[in-house]
């Protein structure tokens, strides 16, 4: 009997999402954040592909791979600026700006490391 009373004390109701209920919000995915994420994905994928092609070529990077990586650096800087601008907006979902910032920072660091190791 004592245990039953104790259980009633800690009766916690978890929120249940059911059909037919709507969530009204003014939040939106900012276009700058989506563009930042897209530029980050393009940049990271291009760098990975350029490194892979250089590896297949015996470690000799052709000039076209270097140009592609330099364009990725420009994309990453642009994407980082757009991601930061989108993150500063109010009443937004922060998924795409955060993903864009993270991917673009990774890309910039990767290009920096490639440049550093190429001059060693």
Tell me what the structure shows:
This protein is mostly helical. It has one domain. 69% of the residues lie in helices and 0% in strands. It contains four helices and no strands. It has helices at residues 2-9, 31-56, 63-87, 95-118. It is elongated and about 65 Å long. The mean pLDDT is 87.
The helicity comes to 55-70%
Beta-strand residue percentage: under 5%
Separate helix tally: 4
* Structural class by helix and strand composition: mainly alpha
Low-confidence stretches: none
Beta strands, count: 0
Largest sheet: none
Distance between the termini: 76 Å
Count up the domains: 1
Supply Rg.
Answer: 24 Å
Question: Strand-and-helix sequence, N→C?
Answer: HHHH
Which term fits the overall shape? elongated
The pLDDT mean sits at 87
What's this entry about, in short?
The protein is an all-alpha fold and 120 residues long. It has helices at residues 2-9, 31-56, 63-87, 95-118.
What attributes characterize this protein structure?
mainly alpha; 69% helix
Helices and strands in order, then pairings?
Elements: H1 2-9, H2 31-56, H3 63-87, H4 95-118
């Amino acid at each position: 009997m004592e245990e039953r009373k104790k259980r009633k004390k800690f009766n916690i109701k978890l929120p249940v999402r059911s059909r037919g209920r709507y969530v009204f919000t003014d939040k939106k995915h900012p276009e700058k954040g989506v563009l930042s994420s897209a530029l980050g994905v393009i940049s990271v994928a291009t760098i990975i592909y350029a490194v892979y092609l250089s590896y297949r070529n015996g470690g000799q990077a052709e000039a076209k791979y270097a140009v592609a990586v330099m364009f990725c650096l420009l994309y990453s800087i642009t994407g980082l600026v757009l991601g930061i601008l989108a993150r500063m907006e109010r009443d937004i979902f922060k998924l795409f700006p955060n993903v864009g910032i993270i991917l673009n920072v990774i890309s910039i660091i990767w290009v920096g490391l490639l440049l550093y190791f190429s001059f060693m």
